[in-house]
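Make up an example, fold above all:
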Amino acid sequence: MPVSVPRPSLSRRTALHAAAAAVTAARTAPVAATSPARPPDRRRALRVMSFNLRFASETGPHPWSERRPVMRRLLRRERPHLLGTQEGLHGQLRDVVDDLGARYAWIGLGRAGGSHDEFTAVLYDAHRLTPEEYDHFWLSATPALIGSATWGNTVVRMASWVRFADRLTGRRFHVLNTHLDHAHQGSRERGAELITSRLRALEPSLPRIVTGDFNVAAHRNPVYDAMLDRGTLKDTWDDAAERGRQYATFHGYRPLVPDGDRVDWILVSPSARTLRAGINTFSEDGRFPSDHLPVQALVEL
């Protein structure tokens, strides 16, 4: 399975063996008894971000060469442990990881196969998280077929998932990142149904984090209800003990819209706790890094 992980330069098998050793050590270490009402521990919580990067292009008024420095400063300031991206191209993702620094790596596959077309890549802090297993599937009637699109959408859509081991806490969890279609409601609904089915097939004892651009407003579309899957996931924005001001997460380089639609979400298992959620409005001299605002959550699994 093609995967792009610029650093660290480990084979997949080596990485998985190292992860297994780390998790075994964590499991055998003495663990103090905890109460279900334990106080939140921000030091152990994960900084999660979902960000539609807007594909790199040098045409038009918002070229990647001008957006990249703003993206660099935003991400270096926030330092997410986990970043689900949408629309990134191969070279663009390499730029982002290079700008984040040596401790970051990524997993992804182009939706047309290999390094071709847009990715739903998962970036991560390799000092905190170790990938144990990963895969990709296409949102179609033939999800194993690279580049397939069968539900009326003319743009290929896919999802990527990773099982991580947390090097700090010893916990293991799944992350799934996706980008639903922008034009066809039927495609979005069937894509959500496939995603929730695949999530249910993963190890049931492990918590989930789902990041994505869902191209519909939270609370205002059947896709949102389908993704929550009768309580098997919850929205970090609604769950958060603290949250910032709400803005429409797609702005299209136009003035920001307070209390606008959230089309980019971070969803988590019911057992997780969201300590804080926010929509990041960072810009420099009127320049935004993308046509979407990144959404963030501080999550304790």
The domain at 43-300 is CATH 3.60.10.10 (Deoxyribonuclease I; Chain A). The first strand starts at residue 46 and ends at 52. The chain is about 25% helix and 25% strand.
